[in-house]
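User: What would this chain look like folded?
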Amino acid sequence: MLPLMGVILLPLSIFFWGKPERLLQMVIVAGIFPAAAVLSLGGICLQPTLAPGLSFLSYIMLQKILGARYPAQQDVRTLCSAMVFNGVWAVFASQAMPRIFHNKVLVWPQKVDAAGTQSLLAPSFGNITQDAYLIVNVILMVFAAQYVTRSQIKIASFFNAFMLTCWLLVGICVWQFLARTIHVPPFPRELFYSNTGWAVLDGQTAGPLPRINASFTEPSACASYLCGVVFTCLWLTLKGYKVKGMRPLIWASTLALCLTTSTTGFASVAIGLMLLPFLVVVTGSARLLGRIGQLAMIGGVILGMMMVTVVTFVPSVVTAAQTVAESTADKKQSASYKERSQADADAMTVFRETYGLGAGWGSNRSSSLAAGLLASVGVIGVIALLVFDWKLVMAAGAALRAQPHSDESLVIEGFLASIFGRVVAAMLSAPTIGMPDFYVMIGIVIGAIARVRLAQRVDKRLLAIPATR
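Assistant: Here's the prediction, encoded as structure tokens.
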């Protein structure tokens, strides 16, 4: 079966097969359509990001078979090594741990195997499917990083594609809000929700207000992505980057985030704002303090004007906002919060009962990222991820000092802010981050760092050449 999203993306993926740069941009854009499918075979649905992603991988693999080499490949290997090790360990553990601890540990299985209750650990189809996704994502990250090290690639074009994607998501949020409140224009569910493997929660309400999930499976998933958008726009604005449409996007994405009424989104933004002073100290950018105050004043004025307008012309919104605030404050008393907390507690039990090795990738499903990683890849995989994160952040800092406010710096800071926002949200309410666009963003950041390192080596060689008359 070929869903409507497949009718759009599959021909484009084939058409741009010889243009890997366009395929990577398509992966970024398709990242906001996780509830759709480009191909449906029985109960297996191909995610929209995988259409351009697999097309990109096939092109790069063919190029490598023909002997193609990319600049700064060694830098890419060094930066990716810990993530590659984590991937290898995760695949090994997914096959070994369910057999070593067979019938000895209770786990929450993946959705495809779920029966609504915990079950004894055993090898399952979830191990295979999750391994396949992980392998594709890691290879996609490495190949994307290698490809963008080419000097003729305009690396800022990937961030421009991300900005377009952000505005597109905001538009979809407003579209769904209008469709659910005034029923105009009609919302195309068949386009956005064609993945039969997911349960789409698009009918939720918070008091009199509809909860918006846009093109995602649920409001919290949409809010998690929007957190990355808010973090990116806010951070780049504070750092003084001039990107067209970025400042309005701060307020537009914040509005879209409010439409989701997601506690995850509100809490993630609050955590980000609390971390801002720490980031100012770490980056050593004293000028950020002034910009933070300036942005806060502008935001206060805009917020005040909006509140006065809303209270005057739409007073019912005040009651709705009070309902949302009360439901957010009482979140810990809700059944969903208790279920998620129990899932995380069960994940930590799995971690302890497997002696810190984990139950294997794809064996257990938790509610938050940290508990999910500990229960699946164990302490070995988590340490590998922490090493990867540390090396990436240190290398990014060095690259930003070497080429401040360059295109590479824009991509590094912009994508890292988005990645950070999505990770913070996942720490609160997502078992994993398995979308290919997330890994492509990491790969582009690594490629940008490698480009800076390569440029530094070239400059050193030029300086070492003795002057001749």
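The chain has a mean pLDDT of 86. If you want, I can go into more detail on any region.
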